[in-house]
Amino acid sequence: MRYIPPKKVRVIFLIALLPALLLTVIGGNIQSKPVMFTGIGIALLALIFYRIWYRCPHCGRFLDRSWGEYCPHCGKRVNQ
Length: 80
Ligand SMILES: [Zn+2]
Prior knowledge:
Blueprint: H1 6-29, H2 33-53
Helix pairs in contact: 1-2
This protein binds zinc ion.
């Protein structure tokens, strides 16, 4: 598995999540299930991606909602 820096994972996650939420809302408004489910699908993929790759480069543990500079598990700097 290729390593992706946590900073990049955050950016990719947010970029993917925005259109996903938009599609879900638009799909709800125009009552189109395919559009809504595409939005939900992209959101789920973004979450899975985040869950797998958003990790500390030192101890390898999932960083969860910690968006700070330091790992909450080992205390080392996350973004070099
Ligand atoms: Zn760590």
